[in-house]
Amino acid sequence: MKRQDKRNPNIVLVGFMGTGKTSIGRRLSMQLRMRYVDTDDIIERDSGRRISDIFAEDGEPAFRELESEAVRKVSNLYSYVIATGGGVVLKEANMVALKRNGIVFCLNATAEEIYQRVRHQSHRPLLQTPDALTKIKTMLEERHPYYATADYMVETTGRSFGEIMGYIKRVFAQSIKVSK
């Protein structure tokens, strides 16, 4: 099926915290001359609060609703690199919305690699636990079926930014070529 719209689709990055969505997303947007947006930034801007405060004061269900609201906003964009929060995949409606105008790439990493990347970050509310590595392993296992709904899976453990971005750019360029 050919796309009638001449605008390019979005590159959407999903995946667990610490897999590189923000770092890769910012670099990709610069290299591809696309605009960049992060759903977590939208949530913080619109609510006037930090995500960790939303979790602490209102709980995860309230945060997930704000997250879905942010997804509804970004899913109407074109030609953006969109980085999402790690749990955005937990609601099927979020993934449906993101796929409407985007190609969804799930960034993956091992639990041990994620732990090394995020262990000193105090702004990760779901990891404020005595055994963060076990929590990461449990959450990865629970979320795996949701992450698997992405269009493409991208392993980030042991790979450079250049390798990861090269793969995403090749897939994206091929997708645009096929759809036009």
Q: What is the number of beta strands? A: 5
What is the general shape?
globular
Tally of contiguous helical segments: 8
Q: Any idea what the radius of gyration is? A: 16 Å
Q: What value does the average pLDDT take?
A: 91
- Can you write the helix and strand succession as a string? EHEHHHEHEHHEH
How much of the polypeptide forms β-strand, as a percent range? 5-15%
Main beta-sheet annotation: 5 strands, parallel
By helix and strand content, what is the structural category?
A: alpha/beta
The side-by-side strand order for the widest beta sheet comes to 2-3-1-4-5
Ranges where pLDDT stays below 50 over 5 or more residues in a row are: 1-5
Bin the helical content: 40-55%
First-residue to last-residue Cα separation = 9 Å
Q: Could you describe the 3D structure shown?
A:
This protein has 8 helices and 5 strands; from the N terminus they run βαβαααβαβααβα. The N terminus is likely disordered. A 5-stranded parallel sheet has the order 2-3-1-4-5, with helices on both faces. Helix 2 packs across helix 4, helix 3 crosses helix 4 and helix 4 runs parallel beside helix 5. The chain is α/β, with parallel strands linked by helices.
